[in-house]
Write a structure and sequence with these properties.
There is one protein chain. The protein is built from 22 helices and 34 strands. A six-stranded mixed sheet has the order 2-3-4-9-10-16, covered by helices on one side. By secondary structure, the protein is an alpha/beta fold. Among the domains are: about 1-45, no CATH class; about 135-290 and about 300-335, Alpha-Beta Complex (2-enoyl-CoA Hydratase, Chain A, domain 1), CATH 3.90.226; about 450-530, PDZ domain (Pdz3 Domain); about 550-750, Alpha-Beta Complex (2-enoyl-CoA Hydratase, Chain A, domain 1), CATH 3.90.226.10. The longest helix is centred in the middle third of the chain and has 18 residues, at about 370-385. Strand 2 (about 145-150) and strand 3 (about 155) form a beta hairpin. The N and C termini lie far apart (about 100 Å).
Length: about 750
């Protein structure tokens, strides 16, 4: 009897010795004979079966390698590259891998000599990952549920439809040997658990990573703002409680040497929570803690959890079968006789805990290997697929865009400029004004285009010029021999954002920040050619006219007060200016606030002075993503009163100026203004990109940014890629630009009673 106990998974001292021996890479066939030889006890009675009882149909000795016990789940459902991207998302954010850049590097190494559209790509990637197993895809179809009787034992097979009632049975066995791995199979497994268990059944707790968005890896390195809002932290998720409807009959699980992750999880759960015996093969807990992702005709099982028995006690690395046999059905009669001990937590479990994800604190090395370019696109896809929350609004085209960009990249493998452009092209599919591609090794260059153009009708007209060679009102005909319309089309493919935002960004970027030959047409129709050099000063200015604050006396409105709230303008107000601003407002018939730019804290103080303190912002939500689910969690409504009460605020008429450059915090600001219909909006629609920006580092020293949260209008209507429409739409003409006339501001004056 002593020999039998020593060969089991019980927590005796000798069993612990056996487990440690296994970790020293001794096979079970080496360990168990040693244990048997140490005892002269007589064999147990045939009427009292014992764990790991040797039988004529016993399987080979248990292989301690987890991957040896894996049956793959369903095949991939998308292109090979898209499926690989989904697998990379699981490994990068939720696996035992803790350093995203190193995980990306493993993908890059795997793809350096092979295309992501090759069936062999996923195998090479799996070989480099920690806590991952490669396998061919298994059965995907779920058969019908059934209950069959074998010598008084009800054998339950989870499947589609309701289970027939279990009657006249002396014991029950749940057959998980061929259970596939799919959402439908998971539901079927839970229905089977409910049918065979009496009373409440709490599923196993699990230690896993939970992310509230893409932890910023880019923007914090490009600016002075450290975005710490998003993180992937280790959490312990309590298992849900299922209400069992079965009877208190002896229970067993039928297992196989190789099973799907779902089947392995189900077997361990019933063993730990319902005292079920395991008949068949011992279970590798690492497989039960894995998620399957199909990639073509194969796939990956990625370990994303650490199953717990309660508190911090992990399930043992191997949950031993009570009867190891290759023919479980032949041993059903022994279920009633088995005494199954409570499963104990294993303080010496070799499986590592799921640690928090480590955010990169600097840029990775510069590289343009073919593998780096391919992995950069796959990693960009993985991030967007996991954390971008607007596919319901902008359309889900990222799968097709990934395949398109990979094909483009392969036309010039190893070319850094091509990699940069293809990442930009991929980001365009998000239609997000915050989305874009970054090359760390190009970002340091502080050179700018000497001119900024605006779209007027079908033409691109110079609005701002930092060179005497070009004048406002000039129309751009071509740049470096490329017609303006053709260059617009090329740039439009690489610029992300709403339609109105894209038009303006393309217009601003029409003349590049390098020596360029530009053909222009003057307002009188004459054409000329100029060679333009880069400027060391940004020509873009959100207000275009950068007017100082004050009464608009020169425009015939001596009692209308104007404030440009663009923090990047030359006349942006400071905290010290607030007392004067309030004094001037008190003497004004009306106020115009120019939000064709980007506000800072002063802008919010000004808003609090003119708007109602109970004005409210848009609907905001965070993503909550785990290996198992993805949900949008609404955040509390923000009130303007968070900026302090405006007890003696300005109560007269107010007009706000907006345009396509009104983006992000500027749109947030504007949302508060419009919530209580405080005044009119004059100008153009805003950008349609609100919410904290975040970014993902990509192999080779590249990066991609996008909007990190979900923002909708206060009434629930879509905001992303739509923006805030003006009450009065106004746009300048060519003549207005030539003459330096701010048409939007002039119309705002007319809207003040």
């Amino acid at each position: 009897m002593a020999c039998v106990l020593l060969a089991s998974a019980s927590m005796t001292g000798r069993a612990r010795f056996a487990r440690r021996a296994l970790r020293r890479h001794l096979s079970v066939t080496t360990v168990l004979p040693l244990l048997v030889a140490c005892s002269d006890a007589s064999p147990s009675s045939p009427s009292s079966p014992t764990p790991d009882e040797p039988t004529d149909d016993s399987p080979p000795s248990f292989d301690p390698a987890p991957c040896a016990h894996l049956v793959g789940g369903g095949r991939g459902e998308h292109s090979l590259a898209s499926d690989l991207g989904r697998a990379h998302a699981l490994a990068r954010y939720f696996s035992v891998e803790t350093k995203p850049r190193e995980t990306d590097a493993k993908l890059a190494d795997a793809l350096d000599t092979i295309s992501p559209n090759s069936p062999d790509a996923v195998k090479g990637y799996a070989q480099r990952l920690s806590g991952a197993c490669f396998a061919a895809a298994g059965a995907q179809a779920l058969g019908p549920s059934s209950v069959t009787m074998h010598d008084g034992v009800a054998v339950v097979v989870p499947g589609t439809g309701d289970l027939p009632p279990i009657t006249n049975a002396k014991s029950v066995a749940v057959d998980l040997r061929e259970l596939p791995d799919s959402p439908e199979a998971h539901d079927a497994l839970e229905r089977a658990m409910v049918a065979v268990v009496a009373g409440d059944l709490r599923l196993l707790n699990a230690e896993m990573r939970s992310c509230n968005g893409q932890p910023d890896e880019v923007y914090s390195l490009l600016s002075t703002i450290d975005i710490t809002q998003y993180a992937c932290k280790t959490t312990t998720e309590k298992g849900v409680v299922l209400t069992g409807k079965g009877t208190s009959l002896p229970l067993a699980v039928l297992s196989a040497p190789r099973m799907t992750p779902l089947a392995a999880w189900g077997a361990i759960t019933l063993r730990a929570r319902a005292g079920a015996a395991i008949i068949g093969e011992s279970i590798s807990t690492e497989i039960a803690e894995s998620r399957w992702v199909g990639v073509g005709d194969a796939g990956l099982a990625v370990r994303t959890k650490r199953l717990l028995l309660g508190g911090k006690r992990p399930v043992p690395d191997v949950v031993a079968a009570d009867i190891r046999t290759g023919d479980p059905l032949a041993h059903l009669a022994k279920i009633e006789q088995l005494e199954v001990a409570e499963l104990s937590g294993d303080a010496e479990a070799a499986r590592p805990a799921i640690a928090p994800l480590q955010r990169p604190k600097d840029w990775g090395a510069e590289s343009a290997r073919p593998g780096d370019g391919r992995a950069a696109l796959i990693a960009a896809y993985a991030s967007a697929r996991t954390f971008f929350s607007y596919f319901d609004i902008v359309g889900d085209t990222v799968d097709a865009r990934l395949d398109e960009c990979l094909a483009t990249l392969d036309t010039k493998p190893g070319d850094r400029w091509t990699i940069y452009r293809t990442i930009s092209r991929f980001a365009e599919a998000l239609h997000d004004g915050h989305a874009g591609s970054y090359d760390k090794y190009r970002a340091a260059a502080k050179v700018y285009s000497p001119v900024t153009t605006l779209p007027i009708g079908s033409e691109l007209v110079v609005a701002i010029s930092k060179t005497p060679l070009v004048h406002p009102g000039d129309v751009v005909i071509s740049v470096d021999g490329v017609p303006a319309a053709e260059r617009v089309a090329d740039l439009s493919d690489l610029i992300s954002g709403s339609p109105q935002k894209k038009v303006h960004i393309v217009a601003e970027a029409l003349v590049p920040a390098k020596d360029s030959v530009v053909v222009l047409r003057a307002p009188d129709g004459a054409t000329r050619t100029e060679t333009l050099s880069p400027s060391n000063e940004a020509s873009s200015n959100f207000s275009l006219f950068d007017r100082p604050r004050g009464m608009l006396t020169d425009l015939g409105a001596a009692d209308v007060y104007y404030v440009c709230l663009d923090t990047y303008g030359k006349h942006a107000p400071t905290v010290e200016d607030l007392p004067d601003i309030r004094t001037q407002m008190a003497a004004a018939r009306g106020v115009v606030l120019d939000m064709r730019g980007y506000p800072d804290a002063v802008g919010w103080e000004v808003l609090a002075h003119v708007a109602n303190s109970d004005s409210f912002g848009p609907k905001m939500a965070e993503l909550m993503v785990t290996p198992d689910r993805r949900e949008i969690v609404p955040q509390p409504t923000q009130l303007l009163s968070m900026w302090g009460p405006a007890a003696s605020g300005y109560a007269g008429p107010v007009v706000v100026l907006t345009g396509a450059r009104t983006q992000s915090q500027a749109e947030h600001w504007t949302s508060f203004f419009v919530s209580k219909k405080r005044g009119k909006i004059v100008g153009g629609a805003t950008s349609g990109a609100n919410g904290t920006i975040t970014g993902v580092q990509l192999p080779g020293g590249f990066g991609m940014t996008f909007t990190g949260m979900r923002v909708d209008n206060a009434d629930g209507s879509p905001f992303h890629s739509h923006g805030i429409a003006p009450d009065v739409e106004v746009a300048p003409t060519i003549t207005d630009l030539r003459d330096g006339k701010d048409t939007v501001l002039l119309r705002a004056i007319q809207e003040i009673p």
